[in-house]
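Dear colleagues,

As part of the handover before I leave the project, I'm documenting each prediction I ran so the next person doesn't have to rerun anything. This entry is a single chain, and its sequence is reproduced below.
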Amino acid sequence: SAMSKSEEETTTTPARADAQETVASGVEEPDAHMAGDGPGEGEEKKEEHVYVQDDSVQAFFDHGDSVFCVAAHPTVPYMAASGDGDNKAYVWDMRTGEIVSTVEGHMDSVVACGFSMDGQYFATASMDGTVRVMSKKKSKKKKKKKNKDKDKDSDNDSSNTNNNDNDDNKDKDDSEQVPERPPSVQYVPLITLEGPGEEIEWMRWHPKGHVLVAGSADQTTWMWAVPSGTCMNVFAGHIGSVMCGTFTSDGKKLCTGSEDASVCVWDPKTGQAIHHLKGQLFHHGPITSIASHPNPKQPLLLVGSMDQNASICHVESGKVLRKLQGHTDSIECVALCEKLPLAATGSMDNTIIVWDTNTGQKRTVLEHDKGVVGVRFLAGEPLLLSASLDNCVRMWDARNGQLLRTWKGHTDSILCMDVSADGSFILTGSDDRTALLFEIKSM
């Protein structure tokens, strides 16, 4: 049914049809677009002009408007979520492209979404000023009351990821439902968090607990405990919209960037600002993006601004260590590499610059055809993913700037990107109203 739906709604290339079966069966397939360094340009010309080159292995078609945010589940690698300009968000299964849970009730676009670090909760943040939280549905065992043997059932529940299905196979009723496929993870509405007086710009879960923060156009950042919904702190100190923010990777500090061209480092427990980085030596344009170093032993912060510059800052001392100058338009996204001293900045000037964080020198310049809206290092690798308004996702070797792969499939600008928990899929959302899944081949 997923396929007939996709054929109605988009021009599905044979490639996607095969690939969807591949994902469902888990069988590797040879990749037609790997040959040569080009992203299969030759192939695109040979095809009928009705077809768009489509390297995606799965698509989610249920959005009614642009897809502004995507999130991969942190512990279940086949679960995804996405939010849109139609005021809705969906949790869906990457294996089928089908809806598992729907978030309704927001009165304006959903601009951020994400799962808690253990996948227990899913949250959406909207321009309506609220955050809606859902919790994982618990009803698995109750549902199976039909089966006579409850103990047998709970055994299967706990080991369903290990293909331990001997009991199931004896049970003739279950034999039709491919028993070794683990179930989708469902979410049910829990609580709506309120407080910010204007639209929410971004939202983040704490890396170690059930706490979430959201920054607002009303110049404040709010922090709530989940599931209670208690407001733990309101961080006030910016004099402009709070445009971006992140916890440090150890979760001990919160860093926010504002339209007022400043960055605040906060103590989440007290709500007090520890450092306020601002002034002519820092930035003179709104702060668009902020990234904390993935290694907690490296207390570095990478900050990108509309003033075309980026900064590397030290979270503990509050000092600006390096000023990164080289872009000719606003920086929209930033990322730090876990293993090597590399930073990446993506800009509306259509380029990504990879910098040496020790020296502040440019290592390499990478190019898209339009502005770059997402950069992401693969965990523990010097491989960099980039997403662009040119409808493409690319993978680069950040050490030498080599383009390793280009994925196409969207028919309009990509707006957001995430990577699945196991590092094997890229999830993207676009102005074309779809979320697509691209497979990262082992290089």
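The mean pLDDT is 86. The chain has six helices and 32 strands.

All the best with the project,
I.
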